[in-house]
């Protein structure tokens, strides 16, 4: 009956196709759906067998069936839960559930009634009831916990308390306060005491705490919105418990003389049903589902982790240096920062089909060209043909390639991109010329071995030619993708393990609310840092070497933290940013109160970043004005400045484009005017 | 007399708006169309007659105003064309003449106002600057390069190797290297690639 209840709350509706990213073809996800369906079929068979057994007087069918089900569940966790510690905790809870059935069966069938072993087995029922909520709490505290030892130390008093309690239960009449057992006329009677209900209250409290902690740790809103499922499971379990003990005074509810359920089965629902629901809806990191989170997290930081380490390494190298060495190091950091920022931006705006316009690559290259002047490397970029759409992974790979290519350019670097479109296909040809050393580049700051990532480019369908000629390293890369009629081609799909992973990344680089927020913050934060660096390189008197170094330190720390759930902007962040804006020559004048709501503060932070960036880049203004007005339904914010009207029509790209997407997602509006002066009006819902 | 119908083809918004404003305010000119893309302009001309086309040479996405001008001349030989550019690329003037472009105007440099050039063009004159602008490239100016050096430089900016340049120009590889070395010495650049990049970004040489 228990798994029939799971079916009633319709796992399939909330399963893979509904809330999660499109996982068509994901074998792991399909595996977990299969598991839940096996549970359901098993439960139905158990119910049928029970019914048959009742009439055929066959005992233990239900017990055997549930025991096998529990064993199956424990085994199914082996490949599902990647975190071995969490897996062990879940499995040990399953073992305790199994022991509950074993204790009951031993008590009823294998020991003499009314003897001490008979009573002892009954006392042993408490053990799983007491231990499983503690295990649940430990599981929830272990999720995404990098310091489990400290957590375990903090839980030590609770564990000691539990150990004492278990000893008392097994050896002392204290348990009589929970269940009073007496014998009358050769029959055993029992009555629940106050302590029993206290234990159940304690059980419910710990399970609730486990749920709340698990929910809060999940960073993906598409999973969090299914929170009701495990809650419903727990509530049903508690209702069934209440029906058993309070309404039926300690006996199973019956239908036509047939037990609807036994109490031990309710505890299976309360523990195994609960955690299985959490796994299936994605609130607990499982291999099949947390890979989304892992990949998204990786796609944000894992795949630029190498670059983050490079920045740290350069910072360590130049920390005590000055003059040209420090300057060259900061320029190098700026290049890497551009790469990370542009990479995050690519992922921010990649649509579900994984294809993106080469225009985004152009923007990234043009931004990088600015910094070449600082490093006294002559750089040029040329593009021909209208922008075409190619896999965003290819653009990311090219960005990385260009980042490494610039490492060793001694005096010049030239990049040319040719876009081509026919009726059936689009293609791009990238040509890079640099007077670096082939296969190894060193600029006194970094040394990079420069092998081509052949497998990656091959998987992306790109061919390349890399050679040296006339003291110039030349790279020519070509990739072509078919168009299917007037629609985009299907996302890349490959066969074989690496390709499946690529396909998965391609599919999952789509916008997820929380990830969008994290990536936007990284993009904006890096944007600010790059602006500061540029101002410093241009000789701003207000910015010192120490300030620039500490700015990058702060950003690196931010990037390491940004895949957590805490994404709110703090007052300290605002103050810091306003202070840095002043250092760059822009005063910020805010009238009105910044809203308290976290999500609004974040958006305002982004808008402020974009506004100040655009003042520095496109106007002669020195003061950024932000007028905030609370309306009945939300807030109206007007951003303006004292600078000249930007030349030309305002084209929304990069920061403005991201900002508009974000605001419209949350139900707000963004209007931009630039008749006399630039003015940006945001209407945000309250 | 009916005003002359003018079509503007310019991808840079400010310049395009400026031309539109000049044409709209002029008494004997009227704005017929304005495009940022050469292909659309050619398509327009194929369907409607215009008296004068103001055509930018270098446009986004590698579009060439000179190619578009040739196509327009093929479709409407009677339509007059005034090409405009800020790029000092030395071959533009010759190419424009060969296509049959009536007039040529350097945006920031030429002394005559564009309206005057437009009027004189419609009056039947052919206005061309006397010489390309002199631009600085490294330690040298563009007029310091010999004709052969400029030819080699053009091939260089196209990404050709020394061997390919030699083959294309019908000279020896050694001669190519000598020309390149000379140009590097004149400009003070550190490598042939830097020479090529600066020539291209400075607008001295713009590949087709």
Question: What's this, in brief?
Answer:
Chain A is α+β, with helices and mostly antiparallel strands and 686 residues long. Chain A has 23 helices and 18 strands.
Number of domains of chain A: 3
Q: How large is the count of helical segments of chain B?
A: 9
Average residue-wise pLDDT of chain B: 89
Give the termini distance of chain B in whole angstroms.
Answer: 40 Å
CATH architecture of the largest domain in chain B: 3-Layer(aba) Sandwich
Helix-and-strand structural type of chain B: alpha/beta
Strand content of chain B: 15-25%
Percent helix of chain A, as a range, is 55-70%
Strand content of chain A: 15-25%
Instruction: Provide the CATH superfamily of the largest domain in chain B.
Output: Response regulator
Count of β-strands of chain B: 7
Q: Which spans of chain B of ≥5 residues are poorly predicted at pLDDT below 50?
A: none
What's the arrangement of strands in the largest beta sheet of chain A? 6-8-9-13-12
Distance between the termini of chain A: 45 Å
Count up the domains of chain B.
2
Topology:
The complex is a heterodimer of chains A (686) and B (208).
Chain A: H1 2-8, H2 27-56, H3 61-80, H4 84-109, H5 116-124, H6 126-142, H7 148-171, E1 179-184, E2 187-192, H8 194-217, H9 221-224, H10 228-247, E3 254-255, E4 258-259, H11 263-281, H12 287-300, H13 305-318, H14 323-349, E5 355-357, H15 359-374, E6 378-384, E7 389-391, H16 392-407, E8 412-421, E9 425-434, E10 440-442, E11 447-449, H17 454-459, E12 462-469, E13 472-482, H18 497-508, H19 513-537, H20 545-561, H21 571-583, E14 587-591, H22 598-618, E15 623-630, E16 634-641, H23 655-665, E17 669-673, E18 679-685
Parallel strand pairs in A: 6-8, 14-15
Antiparallel strand pairs in A: 1-2, 3-4, 5-7, 8-9, 9-13, 10-11, 12-13, 15-16, 16-18, 17-18
Chain B: E1 4-9, H1 13-25, E2 29-35, H2 38-47, E3 52-56, H3 65-75, E4 80-85, H4 92-99, E5 103-106, H5 114-122, E6 136-137, E7 140-141, H6 147-157, H7 162-169, H8 173-187, H9 192-201
